Amino acid sequence: MRRIVGNWKANGSTAQAQALCAALPAPPAGVDVTVCPPLCLLWAARGSLPPGIRLGAQDVSRVDGGAFTGEVTAPMLLDAGCVLALVGHSERRQQGAEDDALIGLKLRACWRHGLLPVLCVGETAAQRRDGSTDAVLAAQVGRVLAGAPPAPLWMAYEPVWAIGTGQAATPEDCARGIAVIRAAVAEAWPAAPPVPCLYGGSVHPANCAAFWREGGADGALVGGASLDAAAFVAICRLAGDA
Ligand code: PEP
């Protein structure tokens, strides 16, 4: 099973969300497809998606409800039809000043309510340059999972320097990052089966297959290309090819 998750980021209107969803066919056999619209477009997307494409959220609150103005909780996301939430996306880490402690609380909020977290980790360009990629990935995973018993989880290896830049990782970079992430999850959860690990960062139809064929990824987290129906459909179709 390959997994494709589309992250629309802060893009789209009701009409655009409906048009984009209506242009998506049901996923090919063996491919699990989820789209993550902005929160205010979840209901518009829900009404327009074809059967088989699931809804996700781009973030989730650490709290379950109450006097927390602006927060959107895991129960609310489930009520809106979401099955998963991205947690720790680098844009949240950098623009929302989220640290691993907060990200860990968000994972636990997902687990309390049965929402699947997709934990995003990745090194910056400076960390890549100074040779600390492996240590950064292992530390991010280790800090977030510390003390948590095994629970449903997808991982996403998202090199920060590759996100939205058009400069994707090589399949070799991908394979190495995913191996480090898998080892870090296995260290935190020694008795648990391996968790799916996606690659994200400037994925498009011409490069996607290399990430699962040579890069060891179980699928892709797709940002910019998920806003282009033809490109997103092509990526999903390629994920279904043997
Ligand atoms: C992302 O938003 O997680 C992402 C990988 O974006 P892009 O595909 O545009 O690099």
In short:
The protein contains 10 helices and 8 strands. By secondary structure, the chain is of the alpha/beta class.
CATH architecture group name: Alpha-Beta Barrel
Overall geometry: globular
Helix fraction by DSSP (H/I, runs of at least 4): 25-40%
Count of DSSP-assigned helices: 10
Strands side by side in the biggest sheet: 1-2-3-4-5-6-7-8
CATH class: Alpha Beta
Terminal-residue CA separation: 11 Å
The biggest beta sheet, please?
Answer: 8 strands, parallel, barrel
Element-by-element helix/strand order:
EHEHEHEHHEHHEHEHEH
Number of domains: 1
Q: Rg, please?
A: 17 Å
Structure classification: alpha/beta
Identify the CATH homologous superfamily. Answer: Aldolase class I
CATH-assigned fold name: TIM Barrel
What small-molecule ligands were found? phosphoenolpyruvate
Name the beta content range.
Answer: 15-25%
- The parts where pLDDT drops under 50 for at least 5 residues are none
Structure explained in plain terms:
- The protein is an alpha/beta fold and 242 residues long.
- The chain has one domain (2-241): TIM Barrel, CATH 3.20.20.70.
- It has ten helices and eight strands.
- α7 (133-145) runs parallel beside α8 (171-188).
- The longest helix is centred in the C-terminal third of the chain and has 18 residues, at 171-188.
- The protein is globular, with a radius of gyration of 17 Å.
- Phosphoenolpyruvate (PEP) binds at residues 7, 9, 89, 158, 163-164, 200-203, 221-225.
